[in-house]
Amino acid sequence: xxxxxxxIIAINVKKLREERKLTRENLSLILGFENSYISKLEKQNMxxxxxxxDKIADFFEIATIQLxxxxx
Length: 72
Fold this sequence. Notes:
Strand content: under 5%
């Protein structure tokens, strides 16, 4: 089954967040996003901007392109 970019990003952000033992709300606050932003992202209820992808990647110390890779 093929996955789209939105789904892959959601899976990867959730995996990275859980590895750091962060709640969705905590990660949103750390990144300076709206409180429910990460929740909406992980549930695929929004489209993310490149700027926000860059900010997430910087926080997790990975290249932004890594967020688009299946099985990060």
